[in-house]
DNA sequence: CGTGGTCAAGCGGTA
DNA sequence: TACCGCTTGACCACG
C-alpha cells in the first residue's frame, strides 16, 4: 500500500484575479522617470503576489491539497542587476509573516521550481553567480515564510554543452562553489532533452541530492526505457531527507508534440505507474504539472474514485492497494 | 473591451 | 556566427 498526495503548480484556474506572478518588465522599469516610484510599484506588485499566494494556500486547504509549488515570479526584477541593494524582503515582510502564521496552523508541503535559467553546471562564472543570486532569493522567501529550506527547490542539471559527460563533471566541480545553505535546498530532476534519469542519479548519488523523477520526461528522453530497474536508487536518494519522496506527473499534449504538457492528466498512465511502485514507499507526493492546474488535480481524483485498488482519503490524496 | 505582439532568460538547433 | 524557437503568464498598444 502506498499513500499518494497530489499537488499542483503556482496558480489556480478556479480563483479569479489571484495571480501570484504579476510583473513589471525590465524594459518598462527603465522607462519610468522616477526610480523611487518605480521601486514602490515593484513593491506593490510583490505584495499583491504574496497576498495572492496566501489566498491560494487557503484555497488548497479548503480542498485538502497539502502539496503546492510556489511561483518563482513572486518578486519582479528581484535579482536584476539594476535593482541591486533593493531590500525586497523588507517590503513584503508582513505578507510573508501572514503565510508563516497560516502554515503554522495548516500543514502543507511547499516547493519552488526556479526557472531554467538557473544553471549550476555552466562554465561561465557570470551565469553561475546569477544562478546563486536567484537561489538566495528563493532561500530568503522560504525563511521569510518560516519554511525550513531543506529540499525545497527543484532544478534541472543544466546545459549539455555538446558533451553530456563533461557537463555532468562540470556540475560536480561547480557544486563546490555553491554555498552549503543553498546546496541543501536543492533537488534534481531528470529532463526531457539532455540529462536522463541515469545521468541525474549519477549526480544525486555522488552529491547526496534527492532526485525528483519526472515520468513524462523519462518517456521523452532516456537511455534505458526500463525505469523500474533504477527505482530503488531513486527512493534511496530520499533516505536523508525530512520530506517524503516526490515526483512530477504530466501527460504529453499529443504524439506530435510529445514533450509539451497536456491540459489534463492521463489517468490510465498515472495508475499504471502507481501500480508498479505500489508498496515501494509508504507515501509519495505527486506534483501534477498540467495546463489546467488544480482543475486537472480535481478531475484526476474523480477518475480515480472508480478504481478497485484506490481508496480515497480526502479531496487530494488516496491509497493505492 | 478584446487581442496580437512583446517581454525576459539561456540553450539548442538550423542555416 | 547569427538568428530563431522554446516556454511562461502577464502586460501593453492598438483598434
Automatic annotation (TrEMBL):
GO terms for molecular function: endonuclease activity; hydrolase activity. Keywords: DNA damage, DNA excision, DNA repair, Endonuclease, Hydrolase, Nuclease. InterPro entries: UvdE, Xyl_isomerase-like_sf. The keyword Magnesium does not apply. Pfam families: UvdE. GO terms for biological process: nucleotide-excision repair; response to UV. The keyword Cell wall biogenesis/degradation does not apply. This is UV damage endonuclease UvsE.
Amino acid at each position: 500500500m502506498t499513500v499518494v498526495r497530489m499537488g499542483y503548480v503556482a496558480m489556480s484556474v478556479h480563483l479569479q484575479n489571484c495571480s501570484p506572478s504579476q510583473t513589471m518588465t525590465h524594459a518598462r522599469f527603465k522607462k519610468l522617470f522616477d526610480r523611487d516610484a518605480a521601486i514602490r510599484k515593484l513593491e506593490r506588485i510583490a505584495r499583491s503576489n504574496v497576498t495572492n499566494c496566501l489566498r491560494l494556500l487557503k484555497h488548497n486547504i479548503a480542498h485538502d491539497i497539502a502539496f503546492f509549488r510556489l511561483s518563482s515570479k513572486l518578486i519582479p526584477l528581484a535579482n536584476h542587476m539594476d535593482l541591486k541593494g533593493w531590500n525586497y524582503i523588507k517590503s513584503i515582510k508582513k505578507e510573508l509573516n501572514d503565510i508563516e502564521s497560516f502554515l503554522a496552523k495548516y500543514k502543507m508541503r511547499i516547493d519552488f521550481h526556479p526557472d531554467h535559467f538557473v544553471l549550476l553546471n555552466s562554465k561561465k562564472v557570470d551565469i553561475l553567480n546569477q544562478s546563486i543570486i536567484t537561489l538566495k532569493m528563493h532561500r530568503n522567501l522560504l525563511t521569510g515564510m518560516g519554511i525550513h529550506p531543506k529540499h525545497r527547490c527543484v532544478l534541472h542539471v543544466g546545459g549539455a554543452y555538446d558533451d553530456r559527460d563533461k557537463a555532468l563533471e562540470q556540475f560536480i566541480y561547480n557544486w563546490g562553489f555553491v554555498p552549503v545553505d543553498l546546496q541543501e535546498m536543492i533537488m534534481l530532476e531528470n529532463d526531457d532533452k539532455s540529462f536522463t534519469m541515469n545521468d541525474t542519479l549519477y549526480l544525486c548519488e555522488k552529491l547526496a541530492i534527492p532526485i525528483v523523477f519526472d515520468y513524462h520526461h523519462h518517456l521523452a528522453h532516456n537511455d534505458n526505457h526500463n525505469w523500474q530497474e533504477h527505482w530503488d536508487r531513486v527512493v534511496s536518494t530520499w533516505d536523508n531527507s525530512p520530506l517524503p519522496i516526490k515526483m512530477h506527473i504530466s501527460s504529453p499534449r499529443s504524439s506530435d508534440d510529445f514533450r509539451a504538457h497536456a491540459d489534463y492528466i492521463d489517468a490510465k498512465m498515472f495508475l499504471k505507474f502507481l501500480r508498479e511502485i505500489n508498496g515501494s514507499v509508504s507515501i509519495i507526493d505527486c506534483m501534477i504539472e498540467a495546463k489546467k492546474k488544480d482543475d486537472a488535480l480535481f478531475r484526476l481524483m474523480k477518475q480515480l474514485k472508480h478504481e478497485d485498488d484506490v481508496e480515497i482519503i480526502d479531496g487530494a490524496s488516496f491509497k493505492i492497494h
